[in-house]
Amino acid sequence: MARYATWQTLTRESPCHPVGVTSSESALPTAPQAATAPQAGRQKPRTDPPANRRERKKLETRAALEQAALRLFAEKGYEHTTVEEIAAEADVAVRTFFRYFASKQHVLFGDVAHQRINHLRAALAASPPDETPLQAISSVLDALDFDEDEQKQISVRLRLLERQPTLISMYLVLNHELRLTIVEFVAARTGLSPRHPYPLLLAGAAVTSWDTALHAWLADDSAPLADLRRQAYAALTAGIPADPPAPA
């Protein structure tokens, strides 16, 4: 009975709340007030860091100079185009031209080929280690696609080379850079000396396949450039063993 009386007493003291807790203490907490949304007009627009804007501006200026030069070379001829005309066509000062290019000869290939070679170098270094050098080179070259605008620029440059044999030296320098890039990769992958015939042979096949494909495509562009390159590389490497010789 005492226990029953005690229970009745407790329930009478707090019919709706636990013992020792008042109604104010047991009240549900109020929901936090939502943060006031900032006014749209007061939000600051997101902008790129100044360094990024400067780099983008440099790339845009360089591209404008290259495109202006190619247009004038095609319209007036290489020899009849001056640096002053290229700068005016790109709407920049002559001194701006020389910040990017040493001469109009250097603007002929611009950064297009050098950027591709740098990309090729990085892609070769990242190729799966279980691929043979032959496979890695073929896969990386296949991935170097050119869009329609790039192919038009390639066509203009190559046709200028045909009309201006004195410019071929620039083309040969680029081919030499490509050859060295592949030689270094094959030597590092196989442990062979860069002067060993195997790295030199693979590099020669890669460079020659591109050169062959470019000139065949220039004569007849009905076949895709990538297919021509692939066919030339397959033919040139048909007799090269996939497994490299063991280092001495």
Structure description:
The protein is mainly alpha-helical and 248 residues long. The chain folds into 2 domains: 58-101, Arc Repressor Mutant, subunit A (Orthogonal Bundle), CATH 1.10.10.60; 108-238, Orthogonal Bundle (Tetracycline Repressor, domain 2). The protein is built from 10 helices and no strands. It has helices spanning 2-13, 50-76, 83-89, 94-100, 112-125, 133-143, 148-163, 168-190, 197-219, 225-236. It is globular.
Topology summary:
Blueprint: H1 2-13, H2 50-76, H3 83-89, H4 94-100, H5 112-125, H6 133-143, H7 148-163, H8 168-190, H9 197-219, H10 225-236
Residues in helix, %: 55-70%
Mean pLDDT: 80
Q: Helices and strands: which structural class?
A: mainly alpha
Segments where pLDDT lies below 50 for 5+ residues?
1-32
CATH topology call of the largest domain: Tetracycline Repressor, domain 2
In what range is the share of β-strand residues?
under 5%
Please report the total strand number as a whole number.
0
Supply the CATH class of the largest domain: Mainly Alpha
- Provide the number of structural domains: 2
Q: Provide the CATH architecture of the largest domain.
A: Orthogonal Bundle
The best one-word shape is globular
Terminal Cα span: 103 Å
Rg, rounded, reads 35 Å
Largest sheet at a glance? none
Total of helices:
10
SSE succession: HHHHHHHHHH
DNA-binding region: 82-101
Protein name: TetR family transcriptional regulator
Keywords: DNA-binding, Transcription, Transcription regulation
Organism: Micromonospora pisi
